[in-house]
Specification:
Spore Coat Polysaccharide Biosynthesis Protein SpsA, Chain A; five-stranded mixed β-sheet; two-stranded parallel sheet
Length: about 210
């Protein structure tokens, strides 16, 4: 999954550097794995040790960026099949002036809000106003750094980087997501991912 996620980012013309945040004791292993899979040689791929939480790992990845990088995309390896055109669209939106950008899809299911601890329904949000958010998420670097420096240490109340940026009062823009940028978390997701890969190999030599 990590190899596919890194490959997806390196295929974007908008991406010049990929920083992979690895487990603190797995930097050498991740380096060897990426080196063995023939990733784009014209892209700079660096491996750094991560922290104990996702938020800490993103912060360490930001710290490893060269000073001349001013736009940052944050991507989850759990979304290994993100199409390159979606990566390009997120980067382009930030380059065109948006401070923070997330890709999102309309919801197919009705969503219920419940009372904690009771499972009693307290409301039904209007589905047309909701989006299922994906990655990569794009940011002006200075804004994302500020969000990480000023936010709660444990990221309480924010489950993604866009949520942290929202706390600063910064506007976050949604661009169209993609069905193939799904998160692989269950056995069924792996079956779907294998089907997508098989189709890509058959149609475009992926």
């Amino acid at each position: 999954m990590l190899v596919h996620a890194v490959r997806a980012m390196t295929r974007s013309r908008a991406v010049s550097l990929v920083i992979v945040v690895a487990p603190s004791d797995g930097v050498a292993e991740v380096r060897a794995m990426l080196d063995s899979h023939g990733l784009a040689e014209d892209k700079d791929i660096r491996i750094v040790a991560g922290g104990d939480t996702r938020q800490a790992s993103v912060r360490l990845g930001l710290a490893a960026l060269p000073d001349d990088i001013d736009i940052v995309l944050v991507h989850d390896a759990a979304r290994p099949l993100v199409p390159v055109e979606m990566v390009d669209a997120v980067a382009a939106a930030v380059r065109d002036g948006a401070t923070a950008v997330v890709p999102g899809l309309p919801l197919a299911d009705t969503v219920k809000q419940i009372e904690p601890g009771t499972n009693i329904v307290t409301g039904t949000p209007e589905r047309a106003l909701l989006r299922a958010v994906q990655t990569p998420q794009g940011f002006r670097r200075d804004v994302l750094v500020t969000a990480h420096e000023t936010g709660p240490a444990d990221g309480e109340g924010a489950t993604d980087d866009a949520g942290m940026v929202e706390r600063l009062g910064v506007q976050v823009v949604v661009v169209p997501g993609h069905e193939e940028a799904f998160k692989v978390t269950r056995p069924l997701d792996l079956i779907l991912a294998e089907a997508v890969l098989a189709r890509r190999r058959a149609t475009d030599g992926y």
